[in-house]
Amino acid sequence: KQPRVALLYILAVRCPMARKEFLIEVAPDRFFDDPHYRGYPEVLVRLEAVEADELASLLAEAAQIVAAQKPRPKRKR
User: Fold this and answer.
1) pLDDT tens figures, 8-60
2) Is the pLDDT confidence value at 1 over 80?
3) Apex CA 66: angle with CA 63 and CA 67, to 5°?
4) Quick count: other Cβ atoms within 10 Å of Cβ 58?
5) 31 alpha-carbon distance from chain centroid
6) Are 18 and 68 within 8 A, CB to CB?
7) For residues 31 and 47, what is the distance between their CA atoms, to the nearest angstrom?
8) pTM for the full model?
9) DSSP per residue over 19-67, as a string?
């Protein structure tokens, strides 16, 4: 398996699956998916193509989703 390389011009943002599918369908120039994220509630965002207010809205929604989740138990190391 190849190590993943950080791409500083792409951001994965948590969102509901229906919203992810909608964003990819209506704006494939800004939003997309890849095999690693397929089936997960996160959309990949091309930062150079997305407007600041649109990204801010996505990030606010993602923060609400994460805040509403139950905390996971700490893993033992």
Assistant:
1) 999 999 999 999 999 999 999 999 999 989 999 999 999 999 999 999 999 99
2) no
3) 80
4) 20
5) 9
6) no
7) 9
8) 0.84
9) HHHHHHHH-TTTEE--TTTTTSSEEEEETTTS-HHHHHHHHHHHHHHHH
